[in-house]
């Protein structure tokens, strides 16, 4: 009989809840520190660019829904991004009243630079503060965390 089989379901659920909260907390703090230390602070514009990079071209309404903001707020964010040359607006072929937002090459380059800065900071920290064995454990943890979101 395995240890899991010997633990009552309530104990396993309590342990899982504690682990879940611990993961949420450490991931949240890690994201914050990485952004601060790499100089890629989170803001509405950067988050919108990242969303566009992941999703591809979408309507302003879809962006607003996915970012949990009002259509008006997202329209203002998108207009600032258009002014900066980071996104384009084209008329939606299915709904001529709507617009589709897409990244420009400049927008893609900006998101790539920021992602690279965050990755480089993390790489530097891993090399400075962890052993080979600890990095191997983190590799397993990353695969396990990916199971949770797939």
Task: Outline the structure in words.
With 150 residues, the chain is mostly helical. The chain folds into 2 domains: 1-38; 39-149, Arc Repressor Mutant, subunit A (Orthogonal Bundle), CATH 1.10.10. It has helices spanning 3-6, 9-38, 44-55, 60-67, 71-83, 105-129, 132-149, and strands spanning 58-59, 87-91, 99-103. Strands 1-3-2 form a 3-stranded antiparallel β-sheet. The chain starts with a helix and ends with a helix. The mean pLDDT is 92. It comes from Paraburkholderia strydomiana. Residues 1-147 form the HTH marR-type domain.
Give the helices and strands, then pairings.
Layout: H1 3-6, H2 9-38, H3 44-55, E1 58-59, H4 60-67, H5 71-83, E2 87-91, E3 99-103, H6 105-129, H7 132-149
Summarize the structure.
Residues 1-147 form the HTH marR-type domain. With 150 residues, the protein is mainly α.
**CATH topology of the largest domain, anyone?**
Arc Repressor Mutant, subunit A
The fraction of residues assigned to DSSP E strands is: 5-15%
Return Rg in Å. Answer: 20 Å
* Adjacency order of strands in the biggest sheet: 1-3-2
Q: Structural class of the secondary structure composition? A: mainly alpha
Proportion of residues in helical segments: over 70%
Kindly report the oligomeric state of this protein: single chain
Distance between the termini: 30 Å
Q: What does the largest sheet look like? A: 3 strands, antiparallel
Q: Domains counted in the coordinates: how many?
A: 2
CATH class descriptor of the largest domain: Mainly Alpha
CATH homologous superfamily assignment of the largest domain: Winged helix-like DNA-binding domain superfamily/Winged helix DNA-binding domain
Strand count:
3
Q: Kindly state the mean pLDDT as a whole number?
A: 92
Q: SSE string, helix = H, strand = E?
A: HHHEHHEEHH
Poorly predicted runs of 5 or more residues: none
Pfam family, one: MarR
Protein name: MarR family transcriptional regulator
Organism: Paraburkholderia strydomiana
Domain HTH marR-type: 1-147
């Amino acid at each position: 009989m395995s240890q899991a089989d010997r633990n009552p379901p309530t104990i396993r659920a309590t342990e899982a809840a504690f682990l879940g909260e611990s993961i949420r907390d450490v991931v949240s703090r890690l994201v914050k520190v990485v952004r601060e230390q790499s100089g890629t602070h989170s803001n509405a514009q950067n988050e919108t660019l990242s969303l566009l990079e992941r999703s591809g071209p979408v309507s302003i309404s879809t962006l607003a829904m996915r970012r949990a903001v009002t259509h008006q707020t997202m329209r203002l964010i998108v207009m600032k991004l258009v002014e900066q040359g980071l996104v384009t607006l084209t008329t939606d072929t299915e709904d001529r009243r709507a617009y589709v937002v897409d990244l420009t090459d400049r927008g893609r380059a900006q998101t790539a630079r920021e992602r690279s800065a965050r990755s480089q900071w993390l790489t530097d920290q891993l090399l400075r503060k962890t052993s080979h064995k600890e990095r191997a454990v983190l590799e397993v943890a990353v695969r396990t965390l990916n199971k949770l979101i797939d």
